[in-house]
Design brief:
heterodimer; A: mainly beta; 4-stranded antiparallel beta sheet; about 0% helix; globular; B: alpha/beta; 7-stranded parallel beta sheet; 6-stranded mixed beta sheet; about 25% strand
Chain lengths: ~325, ~350
């Protein structure tokens, strides 16, 4: 396997500005980028393409196809835009939306809505039965992990069935590794729950956080996967063994100068953004020191890696959208 | 063990957004509407309390409660408020004020604990005032009929309030009005009680000075009224503790941690200033449920900061259900520096 690079450089590719704070950045599988501002305006691909507001109170955006973006809005709707066409579907209580290889899943209230290419027109498809849905992530285009108030559910959206339910009250965040072998969920009490996919009964609890961990990710691939979790101004690293087990204590706890406000994981690298506008790139191989950094114009509110891992986009509270070219190096 | 943690550095010129919580049913929507009319004021509230559709600076919320420790009511958190307040405050131009609306069925302790204690909110917002609205006619009728005055949620939010706005008070006769106001003052020891004629604007009651720092001013020599409640409900007590002379630092920490550990489930609000030996400025302490924090008086938000160190005298006001006043007083006395 390819080990994560060590000597890495970061250069600004371009910078643009949206009218309001950036609340979400998303990449399509083919490398198209959308950044959404808190006023509903968007930047598509680069600063030359900024749209007017398409919704009033956006939560998160996702690419549903190479020419089409879906934006979930707190008002209880999902806006589909692209190819010169804008459509809105009322989705009461929508809180999360994500796409994977042409399948788009929205979590609204206690149910999942699944897009079959008709802008979610079929309504709620699957009652998950785990309380209010807070987050969805895909393990494959068919299998999705759903974080909800009463626990975690694995839902097969191709069969419209809940495959597995794990009772974990107070889940606030969830992430999955690139190979979909392990899920990590953070709860409101400050514990992380590590669930090997297919062996959820072997769940492991990681403790030591005083408060809820809302920024978590899994970086690396194969037998070189780490859980990365943020607690205020600290990044903590938990390397997993080949059974997806974590050690009793994190391998590194790295304090920053300001609270960490955004986190994005890639199969090779990790990016963090903080309240002072620092963007840092990390490797699972040397977790105690950043490989490279860049400076944005204010608190970092969104981060996302391109599918190739060669571009990192950061959004800020001032509306800046900053594209950074990442050049992976080698062992020095 | 609950840790009595330090507040974040609120003395820095941080643009934290002041929050006013408006809790109640009667007239709450109109109070929120009037309070949020000025440009720069944002609102987060259930749909029933918003008189205009959601949009920029107006967020509709649905209570999403999670427990940090399963089964522990004093450790609950309102995840919807965390999410909504972050969205309102994380803007290029932060609002001048955020008004948080709560329905009568909402637990005000959980909401305030969330605002005070959630780390994500600490650097973005600060709690300034809690305003509770009540309906004079409904409550006066209950008093006249010798019915329970209200449920535990009403009793709790009155006990925690900085201001109680009484709607339809003009519809009452003199004796009924006096009895109602006296009952409200008995429960709402932290707060002031104001009639709210329909045409009135909430003004300073909603947007007035910060009431969540320093030693609260309680009305002295108040004649407390008997309050009838349902079996199982409890009228909150308010205990005022005063101690001359400096306190021992470790002893004070132990006393405060002990209060949270022993009374956390019954503690509605704790607030005061402590003169601690060796510290040039008194320490401001405050707590709601199990969330407790402290900081030097010097670090109060601008406008409420004292000009000089206070006297070597401590004052702490504690409101809660079935508090043991003698035990609380003995604990503070034991913390004296010797």
């Amino acid at each position: 396997m390819t080990l994560p690079p060590l000597v890495t450089t970061v250069e600004q590719r371009w910078s643009g500005v949206l009218p309001e704070a950036v609340c979400s950045v998303a990449w399509s599988g083919t490398g198209r980028m959308v950044a959404v501002a808190a006023d509903g305006s968007t930047m598509v691909d680069d600063p030359a393409h900024v749209t007017t507001a398409t919704c009033a109170d956006p939560i998160v955006a996702t690419w549903v196809a190479d020419e089409r973006v879906a934006i979930a809005d707190h008002a209880g709707l999902v806006v589909f835009a692209g190819s010169g066409r804008v459509a809105t579907t009322i989705v009461p209580g929508v809180r999360a939306i994500a796409s994977r290889r042409g399948v788009t899943v929205a979590g609204a209230g206690t149910a999942l809505w699944v897009d079959r290419g008709n802008d979610l027109a079929d309504g709620p498809i699957i009652e998950v039965g785990s309380g209010l849905i807070r987050s969805v992530v895909s393990l494959s285009s068919a299998l999705w992990a759903v974080a909800a108030g009463e626990g975690l559910a694995l839902v097969d959206v191709s069969l419209n069935v809940v495959d597995t339910r794990v009772e974990l009250p107070g889940i606030v965040a969830v992430a999955v590794d690139a190979d979909a072998t392990v899920i990590v969920a953070g709860d409101v009490g400050g514990s992380l729950h590590l669930l090997p996919v297919g062996r959820e009964g072997e769940a492991q609890e990681l403790v030591g956080y005083p408060d809820a961990v809302r920024l978590i990710g899994l970086a690396g691939a194969g037998d070189h996967v780490s859980v990365i979790a943020v607690a205020d101004d600290e990044l903590t690293w938990w390397p997993l063994d080949d059974r997806q087990r974590a050690p009793e204590r994190p391998s590194a706890v790295v304090a920053q100068d300001a609270p960490i406000t955004a986190l994005a994981c890639d199969p090779h690298l990790v990016a963090s953004g903080d309240a002072d506008g620092a963007v840092r790139v990390w490797s699972t191989r040397v977790p105690d020191i950043a490989l490279a950094d860049a400076r944005a114009d204010g608190e970092v509110t969104a981060l996302a890696w391109s599918p190739t891992g060669r571009t990192l986009v950061a959004g800020t509270v001032n509306g800046q959208v900053l594209a950074l070219a990442i050049t992976p190096g080698s062992v020095a | 063990m609950v840790e009595f943690v330090n507040d974040p550095d609120i003395s820095a010129p941080s643009p934290t957004v002041p929050i006013t919580v408006v809790a109640g049913g009667a007239a709450a929507a109109s109070v929120i509407g009037a309070a949020s009319a000025p440009a720069g004021v944002s609102v987060i509230a259930p749909a029933a309390l918003l008189d205009a559709p959601a949009g920029a600076g107006r967020i509709v919320t649905v209570a999403d409660v999670a427990e940090r420790s399963p089964g522990c009511p004093c450790c609950r958190s309102r995840l919807d408020l965390v999410d909504g307040l972050v969205r309102l405050a994380r803007r290029r131009q932060r609002p001048d004020r955020i008004v948080v609306g709560l329905e009568p069925s909402d637990d005000v302790v959980t909401a305030l604990r969330t605002i005070l204690a959630e780390p994500e909110l600490a650097r973005l917002v600060r709690l300034e005032r809690v305003v509770v609205t009540v309906d004079a006619v409904a409550l006066a009728t209950r008093l006249a009929s010798d019915l329970p005055f209200g449920d535990q949620l009403l009793l709790d939010r009155l006990a925690i309030a900085d201001a109680v706005l009484v709607a339809r008070s003009g519809d009452l006769g003199g004796a009924s009005s006096e009895r109602l106001l006296a009952t409200l003052r008995t429960i709402a020891r932290f707060g002031t009680v104001h009639p709210l004629p329909q045409a009135d604007r909430p003004g300073r009651a909603v947007c007035g000075p910060d009431r969540w720092h320093g030693s609260p001013d309680l009305e002295p020599n108040l004649e407390l009224m008997p309050v009838r409640v349902d079996d199982g409900d409890v009228v909150p007590d308010t205990v005022v503790l005063e101690q001359a002379g400096a306190l021992d630092s470790d002893g004070t920490d132990d006393w405060l941690n002990g209060i949270i550990a022993r009374h956390g489930r019954r503690l509605l609000r704790l607030q005061g200033v402590l003169a601690v030996a060796g510290l040039p400025w008194r320490v401001c302490c405050r707590a709601v449920g199990s969330a407790a924090m402290s900081h030097p008086e010097l670090e109060h938000p601008p406008g409420t900061r004292p000009q000089r160190p206070g006297p070597a005298r401590s004052t702490v006001v504690i409101t809660g259900r079935a508090l043991d006043a003698a035990d609380l007083a003995a604990g503070l006395d034991a913390a004296r520096a010797r």
